[in-house]
Amino acid sequence: MFLNKLFRKKNVNLENNKLVIVGLGNPGNKYNNTRHNIGFDIIDRLANEFQLNLLKTSNSAEWNSFHFQGIEIYLVKPTTFMNNSGKSLKQFNSKLGKNLDFLVIYDDLDLPVGKIRLRKNGSAGGHNGIKSIINELGSNEFRRIRIGIGQDRSENTINYVLGKFRNEDQVIIKEVVDSIPAVIYSILSSGFDVAMNEYNGNSIKK
After folding, report:
1. For 68-93, what is each residue's pLDDT tens digit?
2. Is 100 buried (19+), middle (13-18) or exposed (0-12) by CB count in 10 A?
3. Residue 36 catalytic?
């Protein structure tokens, strides 16, 4: 396991002893592998890395958790539709305690396909899932990993984000998904600022 080998080398440094990693998407088989579900794909990749099954379905989410070097890490896929993603996070806040460290992973139309952008806080930037989270938590102070999906201005935006990646983009996206464990390791071992400096603007070239 890639992460376990790396985690043994350094101590985890987080202010909060709980980290909730949330991937955004829409539930249901028809949305599998669509651009809007890149957050779900990444949570599945992390669950595989940590040998977890996301079976618990309370708190309007599929999730599971594990302890690692004093940190309780949650992997979460909201089972609400994208526009109501914040309801799931609000329930986690109520269940686990306020001021949780959320790290939200989601698609971004404004970034080219394959580009990664880490951000500490900010506006929703037109993303309805992030709008819902900000509204439900009453704050925009949560960390994000934005994954570029590009855009096609000749195509309706809703159809585009709910569509599947083109053949030429699928290899790029797979490599991005596979790169996220290293990003998470950097955040946990060195802090978010270091990870931003290391990964912001990174992209997989065609």
Report:
1. 777 889 999 999 999 999 999 998 88
2. middle
3. yes
